[in-house]
Amino acid sequence: MKHNRQSKYYKTEGIVLKGMPLGDRDRLISLYTQDYGRVRLVARGIRKISSKLSGHLDTFNRVVVSISSRSSIDSISGGEVVETFKELKTDLKITARAFYIVELIDDFVADGSVNEELYSLLLTTLRELDLLARSISVGSQRVTMEEDVELLMRFFELNLLIDSGYAPELSMCVVCNQPLSTEGNGYSVEMGGLVGQTCYLQTKAVQPISVAAIKCLRFLSGAKIRVAQKLRINPVLMSEIQMILQKFTMNINERKISARQLIDSINTISEGKQ
């Protein structure tokens, strides 16, 4: 149920995207809510040891907060944790990927822009990462779990584009609006989708794309998350899809996600230990 945000006090539920120091005692919280979209809130005194909110507003936590609107920027007067996703915080690789998805959300959304599908996608993805981290912690085969994590990331990236209104065109040629050929197609980030064989050589800034990648992207774009997780993709194909989706997301937010660099660094260290 939505609350009247024009009133002096209101409550809302949301997921903490990040918190930044504000002065010596306070923190500015970026909270993504189902009712109000992203909101920026001040958590006053949270950096003090005696603060009752300390630990409640950690990144990734799903919380219910009480908000005061008495000043130019709303402030959090109280709150409780609904979900902590504590398992995903215990595995460095999965934690890095959780940072990646909340950073993408924070880049893609605007303050006050409500998008229930996007909120649901974020919440579902965090829950699935938490489950995968729990599976790893109880001794499930790590290689298989990491493949599942990467598939989940590709599902999130593609559906982030779709739910944000930037869905890449995967069915028709974006140049001539004709059906795609069976083979020999490409894609253009600038034009927003796939380019058919006929237009491929006549269009600038077109990159090649495999038939398998097209099929996987189409499947992920229309599948529910539980169905999507049954897909098995070899490492070469996963890398291709990852590169394509990251080019599309970077084209929207116009920068490289810093958490992506963290993921790459962790992967490099892990490979060096093997």
Question: How would you portray this structure in words?
Answer:
- The structure is a single chain.
- By secondary structure, this protein is of the alpha+beta class.
- The protein has 2 domains: 9-83, OB fold (Dihydrolipoamide Acetyltransferase, E2P) (Beta Barrel); 92-263, de novo design (two linked rop proteins).
- It has 8 helices and 8 strands, in the order βββββαααββαβαααα.
- It has helices spanning 92-108, 116-137, 142-163, 197-200, 211-222, 225-228, 235-253, 258-273, and strands at residues 9-22, 26-33, 37-43, 62-68, 75-83, 186-188, 193-195, 207-208.
- It is globular and about 65 Å long.
Write the layout of secondary structure elements.
Blueprint: E1 9-22, E2 26-33, E3 37-43, E4 62-68, E5 75-83, H1 92-108, H2 116-137, H3 142-163, E6 186-188, E7 193-195, H4 197-200, E8 207-208, H5 211-222, H6 225-228, H7 235-253, H8 258-273
Antiparallel strand pairs: 1-2, 1-4, 2-3, 4-5, 6-7, 6-8
Helix pairs in contact: 1-2, 1-3, 1-8, 2-3, 3-7, 5-7
